[in-house]
Amino acid sequence: MKLAAMRYKGFVWPHNPRTYTIEYERVMGEQKVPFGRYFLQDMGPAKRIMRGEGEFVGLEAYQQFKQLASVFYEDGPGLLIHPVWQTSDAYFVELSLRQEPRADYVRYAFAFWEGFDGHNTGIRVEEKNAQGAASAAWGGGLWHTVRQGETLWGIAQAYGVSLSAVIALNPQIKNPNFVLTGEKVRVR
């Protein structure tokens, strides 16, 4: 099975990084109580940290790394689309070389941080019928409005429909690995 390419902002990895890790963080408070006891307070989930290592290989290897480094310097969060992780708004917080770069080979490591509220797995259903103006524009059927962090696969699974059926119902979606927040997806 071939996985889709990882993407962040305008950068598409020519091939996916070799290793991935993901760390979930929870904020805890500790308060010392007299006579040797202590009290823990759970302040809830914090950020996810997504790390990986990879390499660029070939004649354009160093150029590809320079393009990735340019994306690192862009301000603000961006949409991180990963073939395995949930799509999320994330900050590109670390980028490092793992050896001296050569024109044909660059080994690197990266890290992205995502706030706990950076992805969404909730589903909102919209029923469309022939009576509303929107239904005429969308041709009836059952439609779903994509929310931040959702994937086409996750939407199909939530409605009990196969991914291939959802793709067939939505010829306007050119890349099934990338749907935009607010986009209308027909599920039946």
In sequence order, what are the helices and strands, one letter per element? Answer: EEEEHEEEEHEHHE
Q: Report the average pLDDT across residues.
A: 81
Estimated helix fraction: 10-25%
Biggest sheet features: 7 strands, antiparallel
In total, the number of strands is 10
Number of domains: 2
The low-confidence parts are 118-138
CATH fold topology of the largest domain:
Elongation Factor Tu (Ef-tu), domain 3
What is the number of helices?
4
Annotated CATH architecture of the largest domain: Beta Barrel
Tell me the strand percentage band.
Answer: 35-45%
Please list the strands of the largest sheet in the order they lie side by side. Answer: 2-1-5-6-7-4-3
Q: Could you explain the architecture of this structure?
A:
By secondary structure, the chain is α+β, with helices and mostly antiparallel strands. The chain folds into two domains: 112 residues, Beta Barrel (Elongation Factor Tu (Ef-tu), domain 3), CATH 2.40.30; 62 residues, Membrane-bound Lytic Murein Transglycosylase D, Chain A (Roll). Helix content is 18%, strand content 40%. The chain is built from four helices and ten strands. The strands form two sheets. Strands 2-1-5-6-7-4-3 form a seven-stranded antiparallel beta sheet, covered by helices on one side. Strands 8-9-10 form a three-stranded antiparallel beta sheet, with no helix packed on it. Helix 3 crosses helix 4. The chain is flat, with a radius of gyration of 21 Å.
